[in-house]
Amino acid sequence: MAQEITTKQLRKWLLAYAARIIENEGHLTELDTAIGDADHGVNMRRGMGKLQERLHDEGQSEDVSAFLRSVAMTLINGVGGAAGPLYGTFFLRAATSPTNGSSIDLEQLTQMFRYGLDGLQQRGKAQADDKTMIDTIQPAVEAMEAALAAHQSAAVVLAAARQAAHLGMKHTIEIEARKGRASYLGPHSIGHQDPGATSAYFLFETAAEVFTTTGAD
Amino acid sequence: MNKPGSAITQSLRGMALCHPDTIKVHFDPDYVERLAPARSGKVAVISGSGSGHEPLPIGYVGLGMLDAACPGPIFTSPSPVQLLAAVHSVDHGGGVLFVVKNYSGGVLNTELTIELALQEGIDARYVLVNDDVSIPRVANRRGLGAATLACKIAGAAAESGYSLDAVVHVTRRAVAASRSMGVGTNVNTLPRNGPGENLADDSIELGVGIHGEPGEVRSVTKGMPEIVDLIVQPILDDLPFASGDSVLLLISGMGGTPPLELYLFSEAIHELLAARRLRVERQLIGNYLTCLGRGGYTISLMRLDDELLQLWDSPVHTPVLHW
């Protein structure tokens, strides 16, 4: 791939993500009130505030791995609850994926998401259809990998990820929770969209917006 | 108690004032550290827990037991930030062992902390405590009284110079040799439930958890021996404990049961254990892991062998256990 994604663009992506989460705090709270303990919106908003502060800090390393690790630590410290360690793990593992130092290509971006997903599954022990953030992230990563294997452009790969993530998020409405607090509700969890799957969807929505509109940096 | 969150801070400050020669309390992130110096290379033993189970785990910090303990919010796991701060403070170069009760939040946060510690080159492991026989599936069993026992065994092993591998091994053995059951008598002071509906005088709730998780309400009409049989028999059947075994008996109140009632109850337990030819070699009775002010108790038995007995008897100097 010709296009390289720099740490600066990754920063722009996560600023867009933080803003999107903050806009949607009420929505996340509403979803979590229905099937959880109503703290996902508040926890994510608090964490995103910390993330914005961190991302606006001057003098950060331009190294992709160091950058992702610092994002992970900020989320672990700032979000709390179960989402803090889970998003923290996602970025901590993403930070161990291959890079070109201060940038990544499309294949490495896909690998970054794959490393994050694998870490998340290992840590949270959730599988597809458990009604968790995995239901958004797993189909999105698989769609990226398929589009990449078909030599599609960055725009197509990221659009495929966004679409698969969206379908995965909506699919959580139809299924019964088997992990997390919503699982205590059993069949009563059906009919409600999972809040974690929703906050995870915005990762792919904002990635598609930022990485395909900025063009070559 | 003026605003949410401050009760734990105030309680920790009070605890520091009550035990100035044993522990040091750190704030933001909150953790309790032992004051007794540890030799270089000693394995550090850390346990975290939601608050509301006191004295577990913070009352077990000190020589021969925990190097540090991290109190979370009420009934909520401490964060990786707290756990990692404790690691940095008490790592003596011999590695770190976490004693973790089997609840999803605690396991999640501990595993993440261990990943962070390993990335820094600190060898860290954990032992899961899952001794609650009221839950049929072993993987889902909650941690109860064996958490207290495991902290003592791990701490004693670390103090006597065991390697990290050996501390992990003997602590796993201690957990594997332990079984517990919780029983509720009333629910009076559980915060999340509001004023609870108390049980009828002739009922107990079998298999309750230490966060207000409900058990099975059983009507009992034949007095203490019947109650004790309902509680202790599942423990004995599960390991199973056999005639001639030496055991450690832990009877812990849940916070709302007076010592008078614990001792009353213990008579029937001793009678039952004697009838099954189990030798009560060591015992603890009092409040060792609680559920705020709930009425009820947990009963734990650990089958002893020479090594476990020796580690149990090793010197300990903490706010709660000292010999």
List keywords for this structure.
heterodimer; A: 217 residues; mainly alpha; Serine Threonine Protein Phosphatase 5, Tetratricopeptide repeat; two-stranded antiparallel sheet; 2 strands; 68% helix; globular; B: 323 residues; alpha/beta; Rossmann fold; Hypothetical Protein Tm841, Chain: A,domain 3; 2 domains; six-stranded mixed sheet; Dihydroxyacetone_Kinase (chain A); Dihydroxyacetone kinase subunit L (chain A)
List the helices and strands and how they pair.
The complex is a heterodimer of chains A (217) and B (323).
Chain A: E1 5-6, H1 7-23, H2 25-35, H3 40-56, H4 64-79, H5 83-94, E2 103-104, H6 106-124, H7 134-149, H8 154-174, H9 195-213
Antiparallel strand pairs in A: 1-2
Helix pairs in contact in A: 1-3, 1-9, 2-3, 2-9, 3-4, 4-5, 5-6, 6-7, 7-8, 7-9, 8-9
Chain B: H1 6-18, E1 23-26, E2 31-34, E3 44-51, E4 68-74, H2 80-90, E5 96-101, H3 104-119, E6 124-129, H4 146-159, H5 164-176, E7 178-186, E8 203-206, E9 216-219, H6 224-238, E10 246-253, H7 259-275, E11 279-286, E12 295-303, H8 306-313
Parallel strand pairs in B: 3-4, 3-5, 5-6, 10-11
Antiparallel strand pairs in B: 1-2, 2-4, 7-8, 7-12, 8-9, 10-12
